[in-house]
Amino acid sequence: MTNAPMIALQDATKKYDEGPPALAGVTLSVAAGECVAILGHSGSGKSTLLNLIAGLDKPSSGTVTVDGTRVDQLGEAGSAKYRRASIGLVFQFFNLLDDLTVLDNVMVPAQLAGMGKAEAKRRAVELLGSLDIDRHAKAYPQRLSGGQRQRVAVARALMNRPALLLADEPTGALDSSSAEDVRRLLLDLNAEGQTILLVTHDIQLAADTARRTIELVDGAVERDVVNHGSGAGPAARTPLTRPAGEAR
Amino acid sequence: MTLRKPPMPRRLFEVGVHAVARLLPAASPSALGKVVRSGVGRRRLQSLVMALTTFATVTTAMLSLGLLTAVQAPFEHAFGARNGAHLAIQFSSSKVTAAQAAATAHAAGVTEAAGPYPIAAALDTTIGTDCAERAGSDNGPITVSTRPDLGSTSGMDQLALTRGHWPTGPGEIALPSQDFAADCFGDSVVFSSLPGKPSFKVVGFADSVTNSATGFLTADGFARLTAAGAKSDEQMLYRFAKAGTNADIATDKQAVAAAVPAGAVESGQSYLIAEQQATGNAKAYVPFLIGFGILGLFMSVLIISIVVSGAVASGIRRIGILKSLGFTPAQVARAYTAQAMIPATLGLVLGTVFGNLLAVPILGGATQQLGAAGAASATIPLWVSAVVPLGTLLIVGVTALIPALRAGRMPTVRALVVGRAPKAGGGQRAQRLASRLPLPRAMSLGLAQPFARPARTVLVGAAVLFGVVSVTFAVGLETGFNRYLDASTSGFNVASEFVEPTADVGVPWGRYGPNDPRDPHLDADKVAAALAEIEGTKAAFGWGDSGATMVGAPPGGETPEVFTTTGDFSWTGMELLSGRWYSAPGEAVVGDKLASAVGIHVGDDLTVVQQNKQLPLKVVGINFDTNVGDYTVMTDAATFTAAGLTPHIDQFNVELASNVNGAEWSTSAAAALTPLNASVQPNSDGGKNIVVLTMGALVATLTLMMMAVAALGVLSTVVQDTRERAHDLGIFKALGMTPKQTIAMVLTSVSLTGLVAGLIGVPLGVAVEKATLTPMGNAIGRHLPPSVTHTYTAGLLIPLLAGGIVIALLGALLPAGWAARTRTATALRTE
């Protein structure tokens, strides 16, 4: 592990047109290997924060540094390459590509990054196996249950061994059983050393999954607390993740 | 999804749209008007494309139909009003009697006949000495006739007097205004080739609509000519039950000829020849304008289908909301139809104006041949300016109505629930197959996309297809035009240096007619010998207008010229359409235009007359003639000499050896030629054919327009596709797809469609060109040779085959850029 935080936001502000900022001078840091939940009501700035960290959007002012990269200074192509290398994204509605098989969906990030087809396939099969959905490799996403689809989305997010996994309401579209399934998966990943930033409005999910909870209200950090007794154990190298802090 | 809006001349377009929108039926409630206007406003790009396609369609349709009617109308009107003759036949009086000629009125197919009238064909004339300005000038050959009542306003082929009065005595004559100098009106014309050179005072300008004769005398006056030695024949005029085509006329002529002894028919003048002479080159524009017009119409229908269907497909939620607010199905259908009609109306108004404006310079050329009466009516008729746009509007309306009705019938609940265009269900197999290709993943993803929406792919392909057809067609036409221009600079125009009589230097071409005694000629033998002696002369041949006329040539319009040549001209590139070049005395080659007009074939006999002396010639070849005259006969000077006629050699064309300096050669030639009253003139390469150049420019303009429309059609479809796939794009970008990869994916998604459209479009374009170029030649009375019509070489076809991809990529480039710049976070929120 290194001392540098995995995520560091310094006075990050995001304004859209006129009106109050979506994010107002947020300063926070997340260490490698942490699992942090961002809590807040609708419109509190959770998704904006996640977008800034993922390089999907840029702050109006302030800085965003992830895994040593000044994300706010990246251009379009730089942002794309940054996401390939450092970020895995899991969405509430899975965002799988309906006309690609499960296997192809999982392989896409690696192939976009230039990985050879054979190697990408090997890695994807390995991931699907680890997540226990390898039997659906040739199926199309529409034929899977919500929980299965979210597992596929997680597999895809982990394809390039990202330093940071960003999960935006990952259980929001799932029934309670599937939600629990995904929660355990996130816990396991974090236990294996995967840094996770979990955006949710579900206090219970945050408490059960993350070691630390940051609550946003009107775009500002209202609370930043550590949840004792929850979260994952020490980091270990597995097929799913790279150990926290490992240089790429 | 908020794609960046494309740049465009927004203000001008919006002003036009709002102006047209205000003209919507008053029945449209203001709410409906607002829906329509906002729909047009939201789809500015697609609206612009629709406006542009209808503009192109209406412009070409206006031009083609307008030209056809404007050029044709004066002749047709005159032909109908004056009960013109379909065919005028001249019978040799040595083989038929007047009664026998009259009896042909009962030949098969004849519905009406007139005559026989005495006629004397192709008599050389000069202007009399009483016209001081032009005394003695060559006035060309005139075919003279007399009728019992020259000014009759009933019966067939009524003659029209435009100035003066009809001849009333034996010393008076009436001529067509174009056959005698206006400033010599009232002075005399002299029949210079007849013994005694009888002269007549020109007291009237008059003509026959089909040029059945070009000089009109009283019976007494005609008797003066025959007394002076003019050969008098019998002329009969006919109208037939079937006379619409050259083939019909040929059949009719055969029927008449069968009713008289063999060889009695000396010549026949078809009204189609007169019509062609009257309409001139303007009709040559019509075939390719019709071609572009049809392509434009298809393109309009296609683009409007694409845009309105797309608007309906992507606006399902909007339709649901409108219906939930109380819009009836009819109102919804009207709203979506009007969204196409507004830009289309704008396009067709502009197209109507532009078509009329563009017709002015094109009709300008035609009016010269139509004369003053034609010039007055040579504008696009008002009914064309009404029918073409209204017809286009109707087609556009029906095209837009079909998908609009679908929108109107859509159940409200379904529209609200579905909320957006249905996601692509197909294409999974294509994606699987594409993923196996050894291509970068972004490209293989793009390659499979067309299969997800096959209907839309067909529309994109059709837009590219029409673009490729247009380009292939236009490139073929342009190449044909250029080859025609090249051919027109062959033959008598080819030379390094010209040698002409010293007395002719600086004298305008044709100032003196070939029979004018002041027209100087070269001593052919001596000049040829001198040229052969000059160092650096590679080849030389001499030629000139003999002043002879052809018996049986159409009497009006262009006068046939009989050229005599000496020496080898095989190096000039003159091209034979059939037969061979003359190689023995008595043989001749006829230009294709004259051969078509008179119906001459290889192996036929023809007779030329010089100074009232007849010379029979055997036709051994038909050549593609773009030389000095439009109606030409060529024969060797030796043929004239052997028959006791005088060949005229007015010019030598000299080809220099490749290493010879023209100026130095001229200097040494001058010493040898000056004693022979001959001078050297450099070849300044005559001007290009302005009609062909105008056509070329017009074709290029229309092609660019069609290409732009095709590319815009692709653009419109890809924009819509990109909008609908915005969410998927967001996913790809979230997964790390770079802008370059995004562009590559979008461009690849149209390239296969473009390739296929190109492969289909090129042969279609070739077929359209083949169906157009030959009729264009026919419109000006030409049989184009293979060197002009065989335009598509491998070097031309290969890039054309790639044209489909180029058009598709051009059309997809902008939306690809917009897709690449789309904000990922926004795209991901798009549903």
TrEMBL record, chain A:
Domain of life: Bacteria
Ranges for domain ABC transporter: 7-243
GO-annotated cellular components: membrane protein complex; plasma membrane
Positions of the UniProt region annotated as Disordered: 225-248
Pfam family, one: ABC_tran
SUPFAM superfamilies: P-loop containing nucleoside triphosphate hydrolases
InterPro entries membership: AAA+_ATPase, ABC_transporter-like_ATP-bd, ABC_transporter-like_CS, ABC_transpr_LolD-like, MacB-like_ATP-bd, P-loop_NTPase
Keyword annotations of the record: ATP-binding, Nucleotide-binding, Transport
GO terms, molecular function: ATP binding; ATP hydrolysis activity; transmembrane transporter activity
Official protein name in the record: ABC transporter ATP-binding protein
